[in-house]
Amino acid sequence: MSSASPNTLFGMGNPxxxxxxxxxxxxxxxxxxxxxxxxxxxxxHKELFEEIVKKSKVEYHAGGATQNSIKIAQWMxxxxxKVGTFxxxxxxxxxxxxxxxxxxxxAHIDAHYYEQEEKPTGTCAxxxxxxxxxLVANLSAAECYKKDKHLxxxxxxxxxxxxxxxxxxxxxxxxxxxxxxxxxxxxxxxNKLFCLNLSAPFICQFFKDNLMQVMPYVDVLFGNETEAAAxxxxxxxxxxxIKEIAKKAxxxxxxxxxxxxxxxxxxxxxxxxxxxxxxETFPVLKIDPKDIVDTNGAGDAFVGGxxxxxxxxxxxxxxxxxxxxxxxxxxxxxGCTFPEKPDFK
Length: 345
Prior knowledge:
Blueprint lengths: L8 E4 L3 E7 L2 H6 L6 E4 L5 H7 L6 E5 L1 H13 L6 E8 L3 H12 L3 E7 L5 E8 L2 E7 L8 H5 L2 H9 L2 E5 L7 H13 L3 E5 L3 H6 L1 H7 L5 E5 H10 L7 H9 L11 E6 L2 E6 L3 E4 L15 H14 L4 H15 L15
Parallel strand pairs: 1-5, 1-9, 2-7, 3-8, 5-6, 9-10, 10-11, 11-12
Antiparallel strand pairs: 2-4, 7-8, 12-13, 13-14
Helix pairs in contact: 3-12, 10-11, 12-13
């Protein structure tokens, strides 16, 4: 049994059903997609969702960045079940929502969805070409999350209070800033760990104000090299050096002075940079390129591994090790899926 107890890890975000398929360059060009990107669906992408489900090898996986990370953390911890709690919004009584609920249960996470009838459960098309993946998210119901209708309810807020580590992907900044701030302030006031992910360049570019309202409460900030570069540019850091960016992000204003901010920036197959007491780099686990099946869940898995260490109060270098292990397992498989048990010591 791990040292973590039920509901010690709390996540809140956009629960999406991932629809992944291998596509060709013409498909990307038709919908003006970059091979390796994450965007929100616009009207011009409406037909993309209809077209991708007709592809020969289409796969459905329970997704949404935060939910993926909570599931991976739970998988790494194994026992007890329901260490991870997850909040998000889905459609009431619809097929995709039903699949998400079932998958959450199978992953042993304690998912409490706000179910509404206005919009159907959100989806994310993962358009795979080679080892690249272009994600197009149709948030739909995920956008309908309401603080007063769900987070503020006594039985739900009690689950928030039970947690010691909080994780929210930057994607949720486009949905409910007030929900994020309520959780972030609770963590800060009670000297608990609040973790946030930069998630995608567009978050820094178009939701910078929301991001910077939450930043003073962030104890652990995650991002990859592209997101870090966009963040540095938006904040006029005047550097492209990953270690410098980590250092400058760490130095941004912080409310809870009892904890120094930790910044963890990944760079695909290159070393991960982490700013804590000092800035260090950690090599990732080597993998033969032909063993890479799908890099889609790598970032979420990295965070999930890291969170599994935090929730068990392990030293930071052990958290990075767990993160690298989880990412290495996930990229060998389609979607954010994993074997029955981790082989991590």
